[in-house]
Backbone:
């Protein structure tokens, strides 16, 4: 039996996706013979409430010199992180010369705002190719994995932090005890931690099972995050729902007793009870919802193929790797996936081996249907793809339900 990564209680899987490739493991067509795979199963810990993968590939397989995800590919996300940085500067940083640390700073999408404001900052980003983009913008970056040991070194060399930030990375890290301990060491007594990740409640309510892939070790809730940080003398002092990545939660955390606790925390925990997040039956129902979503999506794609329609995927997201492999979507159903990220173009998608092509190929010869793999960016994409729709093109979505938008 597998043990909970947080509290070491024995846990059993509620969903088993079988053997899966890496979500961001885009590969050259000639490499497709020896693709790495691992067993993707998800469990719920009845003791501490943490939803988690039961097995995870080594971190160096996922985060390295050729990491495929560049935060800057979404203009909306750049605006989102500008607003996030402004909230930190206006509401949380003390006057004087504050110090801000961000874990998983990627290409500098968040820290560029602190740099522009002349605030002392440090990014911690182990994937060298994306870190280089940040360093080229003049953002101080350490190309290492964050840990308690690194936290001690940063304190010795640069002092404690007034704010510790992280977006879409806390949930990536299986050695979460070292991270929470590291934060408690790095953070000043009056400091603040702010991080956000896709929210378990949204995943359950929208059946957005594509949030499950190798990098997402955890699906957090306010209950499970509170439990984790309490072990290190910290507490959740506020929670702020976000619309990004299909529904995220921003957690504000401080050393215990250092800051007033907002009533939002108790309110959200009550909502989590009502959603059934602490009951195993909820996750059994989620599994059935995933199965039914898969059946509907495949029936639709097969019908379209039988009608001779062209379907192209939009956005070679890591999430799409879960969809294509779990559903069994093959290149005869989806001709190619359009994506703006140069490092993904000319490659094939992990496992399903659907070609990834530059966006220009989508625009040059519109398909009948675009399967919206980047559904979390749908507002931004719908705005810029007016011409596709006007030309008669239709969108296929599968969150919260399989549907055609015409
Ligand atoms: N914060 C950005 C990037 C999220 S992708 C955004 O929200 O868009 C996650 C990033 O975290 C990747 O760039 C990855 O290399 C980095 N990462 C993964 N494990 C890490 C760790 N242990 N410490 C610091 N960064 C890590
Ligand atoms: P995203 O959904 O942010 O991430 P994840 O990999 O975590 O699931 O990825 C968006 C992908 O979609 C990224 O590869 C860039 C691509 N993309 C486009 O091709 N066009 C667009 O307009 C946008 C917003 C994204
Ligand atoms: Zn547990």
Residues:
């Amino acid at each position: 039996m597998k043990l909970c990564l947080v509290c070491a209680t024995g846990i059993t899987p509620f969903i088993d996706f079988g053997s899966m490739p890496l979500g961001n493991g885009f590969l050259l067509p000639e490499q497709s013979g020896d693709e790495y795979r691992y067993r993707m199963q998800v469990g719920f810990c009845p003791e501490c409430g943490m939803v988690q993968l039961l097995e995870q590939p080594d971190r160096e397989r996922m985060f390295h010199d050729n990491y495929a995800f560049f935060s800057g590919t979404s203009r909306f996300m750049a605006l989102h992180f500008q607003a996030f940085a402004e909230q930190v500067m206006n509401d949380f940083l003390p006057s004087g010369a504050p110090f801000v640390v961000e874990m998983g700073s990627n290409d500098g999408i968040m820290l560029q705002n602190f740099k522009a404001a002349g605030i002392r900052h440090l990014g911690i980003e182990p994937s060298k190719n994306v870190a280089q983009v940040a360093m080229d913008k003049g953002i101080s970056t350490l190309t290492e994995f964050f840990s308690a040991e690194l936290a001690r070194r940063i304190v010795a060399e640069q002092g404690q932090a007034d704010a510790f930030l992280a977006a879409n990375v806390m949930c990536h890290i299986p050695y979460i005890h070292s991270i929470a301990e590291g934060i408690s060491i790095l953070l000043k007594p009056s400091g603040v931690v702010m991080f956000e990740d896709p929210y378990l409640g949204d995943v359950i309510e929208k059946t957005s099972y594509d949030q499950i892939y190798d990098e997402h070790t955890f699906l957090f809730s306010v209950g499970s995050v509170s439990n984790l940080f309490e072990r290190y003398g910290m507490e959740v002092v506020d929670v702020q729902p976000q619309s990004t990545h299909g529904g995220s939660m921003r957690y504000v955390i401080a050393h215990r007793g250092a800051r007033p606790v907002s009533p939002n925390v108790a309110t959200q925990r009550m909502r989590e009870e009502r959603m059934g997040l602490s009951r195993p039956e909820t996750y059994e129902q989620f599994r059935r919802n995933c199965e039914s979503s898969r059946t509907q999506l495949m029936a639709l794609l097969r019908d379209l193929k039988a009608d001779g329609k062209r379907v192209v995927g939009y956005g070679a997201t890591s999430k799409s790797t879960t969809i294509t492999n779990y559903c069994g979507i093959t290149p005869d159903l989806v001709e190619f996936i359009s994506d703006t990220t140069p490092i993904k173009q000319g490659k094939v998608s992990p496992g399903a081996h659907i070609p990834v092509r530059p966006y220009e190929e989508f625009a040059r010869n519109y398909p009948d249907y675009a399967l919206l793999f980047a559904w979390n960016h749908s507002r931004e994409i719908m705005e810029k793809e007016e011409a596709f729709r006007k030309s008669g093109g239709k969108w296929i979505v599968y969150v919260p339900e399989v549907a055609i938008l015409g």
Observations:
- The longest strand covers residues 187-198.
- The chain has 14 helices and 19 strands.
- The two ends are 47 Å apart (CA to CA).
- Residues 204 and 286 are 6 Å apart (CA to CA).
